Design the sequence.
């Protein structure tokens, strides 16, 4: 069966894409917090948001679609079956939590922040308090997502 190995490779590549945001997030956050130039800071925040969006879409959709395919074509695995494969059921629950956090909290807040940053991108003015609050809110949400993605990855490699 050649479908299974192909789906596994896509699943792993999606996980790598999603996990790659961890160091990128750390580096970009550190850089835009430390820079004194308002224009550079806004551009770094814009890159941070676009990178989170791209890697999140690739990672989450890839993992979700391939995970469903893998469970569907395997006779050994099933959905939310804690008695058989508690590690997989835990991963599935965490994925549902990740989806809820992403669609309920991250996307609306990131859209607001993106529009504020994009509207003010060419201006040399420093970020106001409201934008800084939104940056902190999105940062906290991304931190929670990063931790859950890392836990999911650790469950996968240690099962």
Sequence:
């Amino acid at each position: 069966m050649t479908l299974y190995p192909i789906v596994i490779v896509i699943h792993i590549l999606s996980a790598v894409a999603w996990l790659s945001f961890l160091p990128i997030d750390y580096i970009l956050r550190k850089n835009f917090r430390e820079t004194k130039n308002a224009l550079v800071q806004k551009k770094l925040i814009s890159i941070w948001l676009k990178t989170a969006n791209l890697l999140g879409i690739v990672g989450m959709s890839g993992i979700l679609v391939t995970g469903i395919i893998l469970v569907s074509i395997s006779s050994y695995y099933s959905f939310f079956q804690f008695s058989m494969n508690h590690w997989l059921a835990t991963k599935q629950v965490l994925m549902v939590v990740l989806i809820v956090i992403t669609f309920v909290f991250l996307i609306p807040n990131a859209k607001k922040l993106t529009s504020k940053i994009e509207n003010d991108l060419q201006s040399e003015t420093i970020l106001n308090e409201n934008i800084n609050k939104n940056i902190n809110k999105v940062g906290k949400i991304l931190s929670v997502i990063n931790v859950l993605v890392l836990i999911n990855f650790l469950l996968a490699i240690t099962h």
